[in-house]
Amino acid sequence: MGRRRAWRTFIAAFILTLCVLALGCAFLLIEYNVQRTTYGTVDFGVSYTMQEGVPRVRIGEDEPLAVPPRIARVCEAAVPPPIRLLVALWRGETEAVEEMLKELK
């Protein structure tokens, strides 16, 4: 029984070591992607703007597409107003900020 118990202990320690190494690699991969995204080497290819009160989405180099009103309402309901306001301020969309401030009053 001594050999069997030693073998089980070795396998358990080996598997635990592999799990710790995999977790470390995952953290390094996450950190790499966060740094890459944060400092601008990644382009998501999707932008969102407001034109004449209509939300428009641009995917890649294509022309902006108008978002259907039903989908726009669902998206607005999913994101609380303060977060939408902060995002619009960060992007410099003054028209969208003014509209949101009117809605909040």
Fill in the keyword field for this structure.
105 residues, alpha+beta, three-stranded antiparallel sheet, 4 helices, 3 strands
Strand content: 5-15%
Helix content: 55-70%
Question: How many β strands by DSSP?
Answer: 3
Strand order of the largest sheet: 1-2-3
Largest sheet features: 3 strands, antiparallel
Oligomer: single chain
Mean pLDDT: 77
Kindly name the structural category.
alpha+beta
Give the topology string: H per helix, E per strand. HEEEHHH
Number of domains: 2
Low-confidence stretches: none
Radius of gyration: 25 Å
Taking the alpha carbons of the first and last residues, their distance comes to 77 Å
Specify the overall morphology. elongated
Q: Total number of helical segments?
A: 4
Q: How would you describe the overall organization of this protein?
A:
It is a single chain. With about 100 residues, this protein is α+β, with helices and mostly antiparallel strands. It has two domains: about 1-40; about 45-105, no CATH class. The chain is about 65% helix and about 15% strand. The chain is built from four helices and three strands; from the N terminus they run H-E-E-E-H-H-H. Helix 3 (about 80-90) packs antiparallel against helix 4. The N and C termini lie far apart (about 75 Å). The model has no long low-confidence stretch (mean pLDDT about 75).
